[in-house]
Amino acid sequence: MTARRSAAARAGLLALPLAFLAVFFAYPVASIVGLGLRGAAWDVVTDPDVLSVLWFTIWQAAASTALTLVVALPGAYVFARLDFPGKSLLRAAVTVPFVLPTVVVGAAFLALIGQGGVLGVQLDRTVWAILAAHVFFNYAVVVRTVGGLWAHLDPRQEEAAQVLGANRWRAWLSVTLPALAPAVGAAALMVFLFTFTSFGVIQILGGPRYATLEVEIYRQTAQLLDLPVAAVLSLLQFAVVCVLLAFHGWTLRRRESALTLVSAVSAARKPRGLGQWTFLVVNLVVMAVLLLGPLAVLVERSFATADGYGLEFYRALGRNDTGSTLFVAPWEAVGNSLLFGAAATVIALVVGGLAAAAMTRRAGSLVRSVDAVLMLPLGTSAVTVGFGFLIALDGPPLDLRQSVLLVPLAQALVAVPFVVRTILPVLRAVDERLREAAAVLGASPLRAWHEVDLPIVWRALLVAAGFAFAVSLGEFGATVFIARPDAPTLPIAIFRFLARPGDLNYGQAMALSTILMVLCAGSLLVLERLKLGRSGEF
Amino acid sequence: MLQLDSLTVRFGPHVALNDVTLDVAEHEIVSVLGPSGSGKSTLLRVVAGLQPSAGRVLLDGADVSAVPPHRRGVGLMFQDHALFPQRDVAGNVAFGPRMHGQRDTAGRVEELLALVGLAGAGARAVTTLSGGEQQRVALARALAPEPRVLMLDEPLGQLDRTLRERLVVELRQLFTRLGTTVLAVTHDQGEAFALSDRVVVMDAGRIAQVGTAQEVWSQPASAFVARFLGFENVVAAVVRGDVADTPWGPIRVPAGTPQGQCDLLVRPNGVLVKDRGKLGATVAARTFRGDHVALLLTPERGPQLEASCRLQDAPEPGAAVRLVFDAAEVVPLPG
Question: Is the ipTM of this complex over 0.85?
Answer without folding.
Answer: no
